[in-house]
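ugh ok so i messed up the first submission bc i forgot one of the chains. this is the corrected input, ALL of the components this time, i swear. 828 residues overall. if the numbers dont match what u have on ur side tell me asap before i send this to the collaborators (the ones from the other lab, u know who)
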Amino acid sequence: MDTIEQLKLAKSASRKLSKSSYKDRNEALDLISKELIFSKERILAENKKDIELGKKNNLSSALLDRLSLNEKRLSGMSGSIEKVIAQPDPTGKIIKTWKHPLGMNIQQISVPLGVICVIYEARPNVTTDAVSLALKSGNAVVLRGSQHATYSNKAIVDAIHRGLSKSKLSSDVVQFISAKEREESIKILEAVNYVDLIIPRGGEDLKNFVLKYSKIPVIGAGGGTCHLYIDDSAKEKETLDIAINAKTQRPGVCNAIETILVHKDIASQVLPKLEVSLKLKNVEILGCDKTQKIITNVKLATEEDWYKEYLDLKVSVKVVDSIEEAIEHINKYGTKHSESIVTHDTSHAKQFQEEVDAACVYVNASTRFTDGEEFGFGAEIGISTQKLHARGPIALEQLVTYKYLINGEGQIRS
Amino acid sequence: MDTIEQLKLAKSASRKLSKSSYKDRNEALDLISKELIFSKERILAENKKDIELGKKNNLSSALLDRLSLNEKRLSGMSGSIEKVIAQPDPTGKIIKTWKHPLGMNIQQISVPLGVICVIYEARPNVTTDAVSLALKSGNAVVLRGSQHATYSNKAIVDAIHRGLSKSKLSSDVVQFISAKEREESIKILEAVNYVDLIIPRGGEDLKNFVLKYSKIPVIGAGGGTCHLYIDDSAKEKETLDIAINAKTQRPGVCNAIETILVHKDIASQVLPKLEVSLKLKNVEILGCDKTQKIITNVKLATEEDWYKEYLDLKVSVKVVDSIEEAIEHINKYGTKHSESIVTHDTSHAKQFQEEVDAACVYVNASTRFTDGEEFGFGAEIGISTQKLHARGPIALEQLVTYKYLINGEGQIRS
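and heres the new structure output, hopefully the right one now
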C-alpha cells in the first residue's frame, strides 16, 4: 500500500482509538501479548532469515546480537507488554480544574497525541515496546523499521494484527512501513496532517536525518556521554562498585559512563585501585596529565575524548580541583543524559543534583538505572536528552498531550 | 556587544538564576514593575519616536496601535508583572516521588529550562511579559524585538536592567538583541549550546522562518482558524451573543472565530437573525450554497476560505448535516487553537469536546477566553497550537522542564 494511504488510515483509526476505553485497550494488548507467544515458531524462523542475511551483509556482532531473537527474548517482549498493561491509564487524567471568574468551568485533561511514528534500527523488541506504549496511551502507531529486520518485524506485526483482529480495536491502529528508499521516509517526515510525533530510535545519524527533514515535532533520543564524579568524601567500596558497574555492566548502551572525574584530594588513593578493577574488566583507560602521574600506561585524553561516547570498554579519567570544576566539565561535555556523584557530603550531593543539567542526576548509584523498566514505567521508546515535553525515559506519560475543556452558560468576553 | 557573547552571558547567568530563591525572583520582578512606572516619561517619549518612524514607514494602523504605548498601557504592563508575582513558583515542584525496588529514592522535580529566546514583532508589552514569565520560572531570557519597536524596547529594557541592578539577581539574566540582519537571527537559532528554547511570537512568516532555521527546540504560536458550531439544540440568545462576541469583540486576534457552522435543522431559523447582528457590526459574510439559499447577499465561500484566518470583520458560514460533519470540518480546516459549540444536548457537548482536536474546546462560551490572563496564568508569551510540551496559553508552567534526582547508597545494576 502507498505510504501516505497508510498514514491516513492511522490518522482516521487514531480518532476512534482516542475514544476507546482503557479496558478495551488493555484487552487488545493482552491479545497481542498472547499472539506473540502463539506465533513464536514463525517469528523465530523469520528472524533467522534476517540473521542469515545480516551475516551475509557483514553486520557487526553487536548489531547481530540486538537483532537476534530466541524464546527467552520473545517471552521478554511479551512480558513487557504485560508490564505496560499493569500501568495506570495516562489519558483522561484531570491535571487541573478551576473556575473562571465569570463562572465557566475550566479543565485541563490529558489526551492522546494522535499518531506516533517510530523510526528505528534493527531491534525487533522496539516493535512491541512501541506498539504497547502507543496503544495503551490511546495513540495509533506507524512503525518504520530497519531493512535488516524486515522478516522479523513483518512476522511480529502479523502477530500484532492477529491479536488486534480479535480485539475491539481496529487493526489500522498499527501501520508497518517496510524500509524503502530515503525519499519514502522523507514523505513520512513531512506528513504534518497525519502524524503528530516522530520518535527516531537509533544512532546519531538517524536522529540527525530525522531532525533535518521533519516538519513534524520530534523527540530525539540523543547519545549519552555520561560521567561519574568521585568526590573527596567518597567511600572506596561504593566508588569502585559504581564505577565498574556504570562502565562495564553493558558498555554499549547510552547510560553507561564514558568519563570518570576524580577530586584531586582522593585521586592518588582511589585511582590505583580503580585501575586494577578496570583492567580486570579489560577497560582501556585514557587520562589527563594528572591521571598519568598517578597511574601508568595511560594514554593522554585529548579534548575530543571528553566529548566522546565510546560505547565500548574504554574510559577517560580526569582529576579535578573541586566539585565546581566537575560540574562545569559535565555541563560542557555531557549530553544531558545521566550523571552520578559518589559522595558522603550532603551539601555536595545537593549542589551536584541542583547544578548538573541532565535528565537523571544520581547520588551514590550507577547511571545504568536510567531506563523505562528500571524506573517502573513498564517499557520505553528511547531516552530523551532534550528538555521539551519528554526528558529521560520516554514512556506512557510522555505519549500524551493535554487539552482544555471549558464549559459555560453563554459567557462572552467584555 | 557580539550576539554570541550575549548568549554566553545569558547561559552563565541562567545557571545562577536556577539556584536563586523564589523570594529573590519575586523581589526582582517587583523592582522591575516599579522601575517601569518610574521611567514612564522616558519610555513614552522613546515610544513616540518609534510611532513617528512607523508612520513614515507606512505601518498599518493595526500595527501602529499595537506598537503605541500610553500611561494606561504602561500601568497594564506593570500590573501584569504584579499578577505574575502572585502566581505560585513553577520550579522545584515534586511531580512524583517513588522508590526503586533496590531502595533508591527517585524524585521527578520541575526545573527551569535555562535560556529562553523570544523573537517577537512590534508589541512592547511582550518585552515585559516575556521577562516576567521567564524570570519567575528561573530562566534567563534573550529578547529579540522588532526593528519597529527599537526605541521603545531599549527604554523598557533599560528600566528592567535598573530594576535588576537593585535586586539580588544579575542583570545578565535579561539580554536584549536589537533587530539586525537576518544572518544575526540565524546565529541565535543555531546556538544550541546557549539557548534552550525559542518562542517566535508573531505572524506565520516569523514562525516559518524560525522553524526553518532553528536547531533549538521551538514552541510556535500558530494562527487561529477558529470555529463556532451551532448545534440544533442551541438557544437563540446564547448563540447570537457568543457568535457576535467571538467574531467581533476583537477580530484581529488569533482566538476570534473565522467560520460559523450551523446545523441544517436550525439554519433557517438562526441564520437570518445572525445576519442582522453581524451586519450591525459591519461583518462581511461568505457562505456555502445552502447558506446562500437562506440569507441573501452572501458571497460563495471557496475551499480556500475554509482554511483562512481573516483576522478581520469577515466570516464564512457553512450549513452542516450533523455534529459529525461539523467536527470533521473543524479537524480538517482548523488550526487546533480554540473551538466552540453552542448546544443544550449534553451528549453533543461531550462528543464535541472529545472529538475536536484543539488546545481549547468550549461549550456555550466565546473562544475569546483563550488567553493566559483569562485562564488565570498572570500573562502569556503566546498561544501554542502544537501538541508537544505546551498547548494553549504559554505561561509559567510551560517554561519549566523536569529532571529525575536519584538518591542511593551504592546501588548498582545487575
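quick check: The two ends of chain A are 53 Å apart (CA to CA). that seems consistent at least. DSSP finds 15 helices and 16 strands in chain A.
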